[in-house]
Amino acid sequence: MYVKKLPELDYGVSTTIKALGGKWKACILDCIYLEIRRPSEICRNITGLSLRVLNQQLKELEAGNIVYKKIYAEVPLRVEYYLTSWGESLWPVIVAMNEWGNAYRHHYGTES
Amino acid sequence: MYVKKLPELDYGVSTTIKALGGKWKACILDCIYLEIRRPSEICRNITGLSLRVLNQQLKELEAGNIVYKKIYAEVPLRVEYYLTSWGESLWPVIVAMNEWGNAYRHHYGTES
């Protein structure tokens, strides 16, 4: 049978694709990695991302334990997002995916 | 504005996700990386993958210049698939995605 060089290849890769799925998550993690932590700031920093969509993406990232939030009892309330250890360990994978994807895109001049 | 730590993050990551999209491509590249090159052999080695779906995936990988095929003028005709330089350079990204994804999956015992 299939003696995979990589154990459970179909699960490992698809899990990562699911964790990063969609157009925004990598950008949002990039912001948080850059210590841009408040939703309003993150929104201002990513073209085309609405607060509603951002909050949905943050909820998914939080549910997946890739980010966590701190709530400061201030008026108005202050909320900030941080990378969990899973978020931190995902970062080099995002960098590798980003580098390959951009080299490939520039070579083929595709906008996809 | 968004001074991304990673240039064109949204494009780079999504290009890689698109190149690897779906459940089968990473497994197919794994087979070819393991020098399992003929469609019939690849099919036998990946549970649940039909020849029809495999041929579709190989066509996409070929169109994306991630794999190429060699046709041997024999009877019956022999066709073998190889990784292009893009396929070769994608391999470490697949390994990184696979490792993160499996560690994450085992930690959360999810089947996703």
Automatic annotation (TrEMBL), chains A, B:
Residue intervals of the HTH hxlR-type domain: 6-109
Q: Which domain of life is it from?
A: Bacteria
Q: Enumerate the InterPro entries for this protein.
A: HTH_HxlR, WH-like_DNA-bd_sf, WH_DNA-bd_sf
TM region positions: none
In terms of SUPFAM superfamilies, this protein maps to:
Winged helix' DNA-binding domain
Q: Which UniProt keywords apply?
A: DNA-binding, Transcription, Transcription regulation
Protein's name according to its UniProt entry = Helix-turn-helix transcriptional regulator
Q: What is the scientific name of the source organism?
A: Chitinophaga qingshengii
What does the organism's lineage look like at the top?
Answer: Bacteria, Pseudomonadati, Bacteroidota, Chitinophagia, Chitinophagales
